[in-house]
Design goal:
The protein is built from 28 helices and 37 strands. The protein has 997 residues and is of the alpha+beta class.
Length: 997
């Protein structure tokens, strides 16, 4: 046997040596050795690369979580269970309002009260390895990372239930690797502190589930089961559980209800039903259900179980609740930042940090059981809502097209909206507000959120008060209400006008211009102070959307481009009532935590904007808006059931898209706004069937103020008046120039008196504006008469103004000086005329026409004609001013001609002759033969000339007018005929026919 083994061994060795010595064997050996070495090298590279990648990954992961503080078990549990208590809101004076409305309903439940189907559906869909993992599933994380890096279309995600719990309760929904790294770290740590049942129970109580049948957002499986299927979570059947378990992936896509309540259309319901089928398939795949159960659930009509009878619980104060939540969230952001050692100011500088703390604060406000005390007075709020609802003349309701949540177009009503804010002047506390007409139609709070053009309410804040501060005007200083035209930066001319486009009141007092809200004086005054940046007064008054660049726009003086909310407008005017000191608006007085500890108390934030003297003078001027005969709020004042020292301002924006009225007394300020939700819609679309928008806003303001007075007569009906500070003086001045009265100004009745700020501006320089008032008119405009201008075409002779005054008062825009003193103004006895640059050419002739006894003629083609002279047989019979019209009633027969006369006194050549022929004399009758037998027949009377035409007297030899007279330097007046038997009717005095406008 041994020999045989040796023989077999020898043969094997010989065979091996034979193969090994062959050429192909040698090549195979070399190739195998190469691949083997390459494999070893590749393994080494992969090992080193893997170690390096793992090291880099670990280092990167460590850098992402480097700043994450190590939370203790109690801290993590506290944050996970932060949903347990809801915050509460209080009116002023600690009067309970109710639970904080967050548009999210949640009812807590225990895990043993949840259907097994629901738990299995969640596990199959969200985390099938929940019972095995320690907070994370590595392969799921790597799968998600790969999909993210490769930008794959199908993103399956990689979060366990534990990670989702961390994301929802401790971190934020921010999409970043830093947040994901923290989530992984905290999920593994949470698994050390909480068992699986605790984690599952917390998850089921915090996860959002879309909406209930009333349209309210819901969270927690108990709330979802009741709100969607009207059953407790313990009684959910398999298809119901699968439907609910599928919702969290996209809550508002898969929920069966719309935001307004009620079931969605069938095509939109199908999204949630398809998702339910996916959940059922995953349950079958993971063996949580059998094939039979799966088939039965697929065949089940889930739509029959959807609840449709639930209604939203009635909340009487939705606007208050929402507003308090929003403002409390912002306050808690700063509180949380301070607790974390972060300067609250840095939140505004770091968008990422701001977003993080906004989310954290929102959760805290909803979950930490805060007691939030507001400044809103319930009785006052209720009374104003009732008054708002009782008013019936808001105007027509329009419609608008919106895109609803399902992506379809929908026509919805668009009524005239109303907003109002009532502010306590000294503190800035908001006592009440009106957020809109109907919360069911629009839940937008127009009082605090609607940034609308503020119109003429900008004038006191931006123009008149700054002009007082700068010493440009006193209360009664003259301003100019005359049209002008300027070129804009876009190369187009701009010709602004007053609200009544034809209105030009000439020189008027600043007080009157403000009370009547004339646009032209405001623009002119703004231009005079523009380089001193008055826009900063609006910014200091809390107008959050106003920027310094708007100072460059002349339209800003009228509120063009200047936007604000009713809250901001009320706060701005409260500054005047508060002696020039701005008090920031607030609605939350204090916040306490669940244990009653004070964590926030409002501190009044003030800033001096205007001096007390400026504030008082503006208050006095704005009194005229309410009590003046032409004040734009006198209608509101007349409708009040009580008397108080009210001042304020109205405002109307372009095309009457918005109307405003803000009024205040020493205690309180109330702003009111009316407008449509769409800013392009005008309130004046049906002027013949609705009240004027300005009338409506006056009525609404008065109705709200009367309702407020009924609640607290002493506060709203205070008999206090605005206290006059030191430094206010009353001084006399020349009303047309604003300078100290001169003898001429006093003698002509032009002296006025009003309030001035002693340290800033008082009239001291004597008036130098007056001259003689001789003027003539050319094309309806007044010009200074020349020494050669014929007296019959000259008016005035009393009070006039100098050229220097005209240039000064019309600066910087210029304008028609003849409009400075219209006939209906307080200064109608003053003549404003400019010099006319006359030429040295006689005016062009005219064409005359005679129709019966009416002689008319065409305008002369020359541009310097002041009037026309009418001649009969070369003798002048009338002089007609160019402003009186081109006609004259003639009398008698003769040749009538017309000559144009220019401002220098030159006459044109005669017009064509218009003739009235003398009547033919009647033939004398033949004498009757003598009748001696009838001596009693009387002799015929002498012939009487016709009654309609007296016998023409002989023309005197002197003066004789040539047909084509040579124009003298100073034309002499022709002498009148000597003792004519009947003088033709004298024309009207040219002075009486002048157009005084």
């Amino acid at each position: 046997m041994r020999e045989r083994l040796r023989s077999w061994q020898k043969k094997s060795e010989d065979t091996y040596h034979k193969w090994n010595s062959s050429s192909w064997s040698k090549g195979l050996k070399i190739t195998t050795g190469v691949f083997w070495n390459l494999a070893i090298l590749l393994a080494i590279i992969l090992t080193i690369g893997g170690v390096f990648a793992a090291s880099v990954g670990a280092g990167y992961f460590a850098s992402l979580v480097d700043e994450e503080e190590l939370r203790t078990e109690s801290e993590m549990r506290g944050e996970i269970y932060a949903y347990e208590e809801t915050s509460e809101i209080f009116f002023a004076n600690d009067e309970y309002l109710g639970k904080l409305r967050t548009d999210l309903e949640r009812e807590e439940t225990d895990l043993d009260k949840v259907s097994d189907y629901a738990i299995d559906a969640v596990l199959a869909t969200e985390d099938e390895y929940f019972d095995e993992h320690d907070g994370i599933v590595p392969k799921a994380i790597f799968r998600g990372l790969f999909q993210d890096v490769s930008n794959a279309d199908n993103q399956t995600g990689g979060s366990t239930l534990t990670q989702q719990l961390i994301k929802n309760q401790i971190l934020t929904n921010e999409v970043s690797y830093e947040r994901k790294a923290k989530e992984i770290l905290l999920a593994m740590r949470l698994e050390k502190f909480m068992n699986k049942d605790e984690i599952m129970e917390a998850y089921l109580n915090i996860i959002p589930y879309g909406r209930n049948s009333a349209g309210t957002n819901i969270a927690g499986i108990e709330t979802a089961a009741n709100g969607i299927f009207n059953v407790p979570a313990s009684e959910l059947n398999l298809p119901q559980a699968a439907f609910i378990a599928g919702i969290p992936k996209a809550p508002f896509r898969y929920t069966p209800y719309s935001s307004g309540g009620g079931l969605k259309e069938p095509e939109y319901l199908e999204f949630g039903i398809d998702r339910m089928r996916t959940v059922l398939y995953r349950m079958l795949e993971t063996e949580f259900i059998t094939q039979e159960e799966y088939d039965a659930a697929l065949a089940y009509d889930i739509t029959q179980d959807f609840r449709t009878d639930e209604t939203r619980s009635y909340e009487r104060y939705p606007h208050i609740t929402t507003e308090v939540e929003k403002r409390a969230t912002r306050i808690i952001m700063d509180v949380l930042a301070e607790e974390a050692g972060i300067d609250p100011a840095s939140l505004m500088e770091n968008d990422k940090l701001f977003e993080e703390y906004e989310i954290l604060a929102d959760r805290a406000v909803r979950a930490r059981g805060y007691r939030i005390h507001s400044s809103i007075v319930r009785e006052l709020f209720d009374a104003q809502q009732d008054a708002k609802d009782a008013y019936e003349a808001y105007g027509p309701t329009l419609t608008k097209t919106i895109i609803n949540e399902e992506g379809a177009e929908e026509e919805v009503p668009m009524p005239v909206q109303v907003a109002s804010v009532t502010t306590e002047n000294g503190t800035g506390r908001m006592l009440s507000f009106v957020g809109g007409r109907d919360h069911e139609i629009s839940n937008f709070n127009y009082a605090t959120q609607a940034q609308r053009s503020i119109g003429s309410t900008a004038k006191p804040l931006l123009v008149y008060a700054p002009a007082l501060e700068y010493g440009k005007i006193g209360a009664g200083s003259p301003v100019v209400d005359v049209k002008f035209e300027v070129m804009q930066s876009n190369g187009r001319p701009w010709t602004p006008s007053n609200f009544t486009a034809s209105s030009e009141q000439g020189i008027m007092s600043a007080r009157d211009a403000l009370a009547q809200s004339q646009n032209l004086p405001a623009i002119r005054l703004f231009a005079q102070i523009q380089n001193q940046m008055p826009i900063n007064y609006l910014i200091k008054n809390g107008f959050s959307s106003v920027e310094e660049s708007e100072n460059a726009n002349a339209t800003s003086a009228l509120g063009g481009g200047i936007e604000g909310t009713p809250e901001e407008v009320a706060s701005g005017y409260a500054t005047f009532a508060n002696g020039g000191t701005f008090a920031a608006s607030s609605i939350i007085d204090r916040i306490e935590d669940a244990e009653g500890n004070l964590i926030y108390e409002h501190e009044i934030e003030t800033e001096d904007v205007y001096t007390p003297q400026t504030a008082y003078v503006i208050n006095d001027m704005l009194r005229d808006v309410f009590s003046g005969p032409r004040g734009t709020a006198n209608r509101a004042n007349d409708l009040l059931k009580f008397n108080a020292d009210f001042a304020g301002k109205s405002g109307t924006t372009q095309e009457t898209r918005d109307v405003w009225l803000v009024g205040y007394n020493p205690n309180v300020t109330m702003s009111v706004w009316l407008g449509y939700d769409q800013e392009t819609s005008s309130l004046d679309i049906m002027p013949n069937s609705t009240l004027q928008p300005s009338t409506r806003v006056n009525q609404v303001w008065a109705a709200l103020m009367n309702a407020s007075y009924d609640v607290d007569p002493e506060f709203f009906g205070t008999q206090e008046t605005f206290a006059e500070p030191e430094g206010i003086v009353s001084r006399s001045f020349c009303g047309i120039s604003g300078l100290a009265p001169s003898d001429g100004c006093s003698g002509d009745g032009l002296v006025r008196s009003d309030l001035f700020i002693a340290d800033v501006m008082v009239p001291t320089k004597a008036d130098d504006s007056l001259t003689t008032g001789r003027f003539t008119t050319i094309d309806g405009n007044r010009y200074a008469a020349l020494s050669s201008t014929p007296d019959e075409f000259v008016s005035g002779g009393g009070v006039g103004v100098s050229e220097d005054f005209i240039d000064r008062i019309l600066a910087p825009f210029g304008g028609d000086a003849s409009k400075l003193f219209p006939s209906d103004s307080r200064f109608s006895n003053v003549v404003s005329s400019t010099s006319f640059d006359a030429d040295d050419v006689a005016p062009a002739a005219v064409q005359a026409t005679l129709d019966g006894d009416s002689l008319t003629w065409s305008d002369s083609a020359s541009n310097d004609v002041v009037g026309y002279r009418v001649y009969r047989n070369n003798s002048r019979v009338a002089s007609i001013s160019e402003s009186a019209g081109n006609s004259y009633t003639v009398s008698g027969s003769g040749n009538f001609t017309v000559r144009a006369v220019d401002i220098t006194g030159r006459e044109s050549s005669n017009s064509n002759a218009a003739e009235i022929a003398a009547p033919e004399p009647e033939p004398e009758p033949e004498p009757e033969p003598s009748n001696e037998e009838n001596n009693d027949t009387p002799a015929p009377p002498p012939e009487t000339p016709p009654a309609t035409e007296p016998e023409e007297p002989a023309e005197p030899e002197e003066p004789v007018e040539p047909e084509e007279p040579v124009e003298p330097e100073e034309p002499e007046e022709p002498e009148e005929p000597v003792d004519p038997p009947e003088e033709p009717e004298e024309p009207e005095d040219p002075d009486d026919t002048e157009d005084a406008a």
